[in-house]
Amino acid sequence: MDVGFLVFGLAGLLTLVCFMPPLAGRLKLPYSVLLAIVGCLLGIIVHVHGWAPSWIGDFLDSLERFEISSETFLMVFLPVLLFETALSMNVRRLMDDIGPILMMAIVAVVVCTVVVGVTLDAISPYGLVVCLLLGAIVATTDPVAVVGIFREVGAPKRLTTLVEGESLFNDAASIALYSVLLAVLGGHGELTASGIFNDFIVHFIGGGVAGFAMGRLACFLFAWLRGFPTAEITLTLTLAYLSFFISEHYLSVSGVVATVIAGLVVGSTGRTRMSPTTFEYLSSAWEQFGFWANSLIFLFAAMLIPKLMAAADWQELALVAVVFVATLVARAIVVFGLLPLLGLTRLGTKVSNPYKVVMLWGGLRGAVSLALALAVTEQTGVAEEARQFIAVATTSYVLLTLFINGISLRPLIRMLGLNQLSPVERTIRNQALAVALEDLQGKTEEVAKTEHIGTEVRDRIRAVFDASLTSVHDGQVGQMTDDQRVAVGLAIVAQREEEMFFDILKAQIVDWRMAEALLARAERLEDAIRLGGIPGFERAIAADVRYSTGFRLALRLHYLFGFQGWLARELGQRFANLMSKRSVAQRLIVFAREQITPLLGEEATQRIVSLHQRRLDLIENAMQALNLQYPSYAQWLQESYLGRVAREMERIRYRDMLEQFLISGEVYADLMAQLKSRWAHIDTHPPLDIEMSAAELIKRVPLFEGLSADSLRAISKLLKPRLSLPDQRVLTKGRHGEEMCFVASGAVAVHLPDNTMIELGSGEFFGELGLLGEQQIAPDVTSLGYSKLLMLSSRDFHALLARDEHLRERIQLVAKQRLRAIEVWKQFSQANAASAAAPAPAPSPAQAAEAAEAASENPPSTAGGNGMPAALQDSAADSPNEGAEGAPPPGEVLGEPGIVPR
């Protein structure tokens, strides 16, 4: 075919497609249905166009000479359709309903294949394999045909996600079954349940792994292409085709699943890896790609319908009616039978009956089914009779779903009221409308005065506002409960928070790694409010300041092997995250006061502000310990943050000057180069030095003062430096006599059995009594901040005491003092217990003398005030250290009983 006529034919079709969306709107028809009608008409006209003028005749001739094969559908159009749909999906909402989606995408395909196959085999002469093959072909639903209708009528987002997610993944299941059955029909395989199952598992999971790997690779490459939008968008286009082709032809896994997963990865992760403006361009570009691919694939597929239906007879058409009923029955089995059972498990979420009805009736079929049927007609190894039947049955069935289900789906959604706002949403809508109209009416009056517009015109415009305000009952906001108003306000603020974090990314105030974490936290907060209301928000803000999984793993490796580099990076990342969250939390409180008050009222706004103030307090508390422990790093973070803000403001200023023609493009380029050089230092991220060298830390412990250099070197080899987090349990009751600890910096709290507490600061130690065999008390010890500890195991402890007599004497002296204090404390405890049961006699002279003796041996410490018995405080607190025995082994860290940070 001449290239010029090929281009002429494609350009003519795209020109025709341009007028389809407005025409579909005027005719009240789904866009896919109109495309099918036009395609069928074109398929008929191309064979009888002798009457047409020469240029129309040439156009129709070029269409007739198009060689449209099944491979064209699957390799040219399908990757674009799948990738575009996956790119626009919200991955978190998809994962919320992953159970029902996979049920409809996998189980429903199998059920449909079996029900259609067995039913047709019982009433037709074509054989079980042919009937099963037809069932697999008609089991795949078309995402574009269904979701297009949902978007037109304003269906709920969750319903759209359920059906769209099903349509994305069931192509893979259908094509996997189709491949196995076609091989059996061609004599190249056997029909066994295990064979089909194994083939499907390999294809589906393998495709998912391949797509995830290629999607992550593309996101990594975005960093190299940053600043070149055309290159970044081109990479996503090549990713769609390469993930499909490589998976199918080189890895022998599902190209459909690979393309879908790659699109989901780019849609969720890519927006933080590529420049923000590029992601906006990317969304628009892929919307255009999807429109072209969807329109052309429907037109080309529909043009084949007259050819495929030419040899149809009444018997085959009667079997099509059976197929239509059988597919509905199969879908009903899954929707109304299996989905409720899935809802009883952790994988399932409840789906309402109106949603189930729409999911049952909304299983439209489209171009993929036609492409698979066309592929069967191209298989010379399949009997002619079977090829003809599959082609006619599939084509007729697709037309039935489009013209019956497609046309009636919109009225069905309206009849079920799924396109209507909820009472709460209507109330908020009316209140927002009232607030906006009142504000706009005042501004319109100001414009009228400024422009000297006549009184009559102003009265007419005022009448429009007055009529609209009269129809809006802004008092409806009072119909909501207080908790409903607060929950709605929290959801609005959460959405604003996500936008703020994205704005921070656009301004390059944070890098993509931090932006990815911040955006994920903001999405989780919004989901928590949507699912749990106010309690969900409170749980989410508590979880927001907890340590990440990466931090927990880094801390585990630090305790097991002493690795510090990863832990230092995680600490720095947490520091920067908390600072960004604090900045946004402060601005959100201002936003709530200014924007939520007119919408929801003063009382609801105060509760929202109070909840966010509590969140801000949690963030401040989490940052306080870091600021105290690492003041230099905190200062650098503030400098970096302020510098990035200044850099962005300078960039915006130069861009405005360029747009206002105050400077030329050459001057703008030079200014931007100077800007980049001027602020380059703020992108240099200094490492957070956690200073965990044993040789340096032992110098802070007074117990080791005066020891020789050789002794200090020997001791430093035995002591294991460890970082303890705020509120982290260091020693617990369950592990006695395993280790002792020296506090090099920071502070720990010793929790005694009588619910009293002692604080131990830098230079003090604890746990030595357990190593000396004294197990009389076993308190818990927790860190009060980011404390640097030196851990000494039981074996090394005894070796050290045997080697250094002077050190042994010091430790034994402290142990003796503490044991004396324990005896005093026991006597006081017994006296208090006796006084609780009966009038307590005055302390005996011996007891008083003993307490006085303990107090005289150890003068009171100014660091007391902890509620501990006075004699115990006096005898223990002023010694170089306070004691508590029982330490967990180095391996007992986060997630285990030994160390549990908040």
UniProtKB/TrEMBL annotation:
- Signal as a keyword of this entry, yes or no, is no
Region of interest: Disordered: 836-902
Q: Which SUPFAM superfamilies match?
A: cAMP-binding domain-like
Positions of the Cyclic nucleotide-binding domain: 703-810
Tell me the SMART domains matching this sequence: cNMP
Membrane topology, as annotated, equals:
Multi-pass membrane protein
InterPro entries this protein is in?
A: Cation/H_exchanger_CPA1, Cation/H_exchanger_TM, cNMP-bd_dom, cNMP-bd_dom_sf, RmlC-like_jellyroll
Which UniProt key words apply to this protein?
Cell membrane, Ion transport, Membrane, Sodium, Sodium transport, Transmembrane, Transmembrane helix, Transport
**From its record, what is one biological process in GO terms?**
regulation of intracellular pH
Q: Residue spans with biased composition (Low complexity)?
A: 836-861, 882-902
| Listed GO MF terms | potassium:proton antiporter activity; sodium:proton antiporter activity
> What GO cellular-component annotations does this UniProt entry give?
plasma membrane
Q: Which CDD domains match?
A: CAP_ED (cd00038)
Question: Does the keyword DNA-binding feature in the UniProt annotation?
Answer: no
- The membrane spanning regions, by residue number, are 6-24, 31-52, 72-89, 101-120, 126-147, 168-188, 200-225, 237-265, 285-305, 317-338, 358-377, 389-409
Subcellular compartments: Cell membrane
Q: What is this protein called?
A: Na(+)/H(+) antiporter ApNhaP
Record the organism. Answer: Achromobacter agilis
Q: What is the lineage of its organism?
A: Bacteria, Pseudomonadati, Pseudomonadota, Betaproteobacteria, Burkholderiales
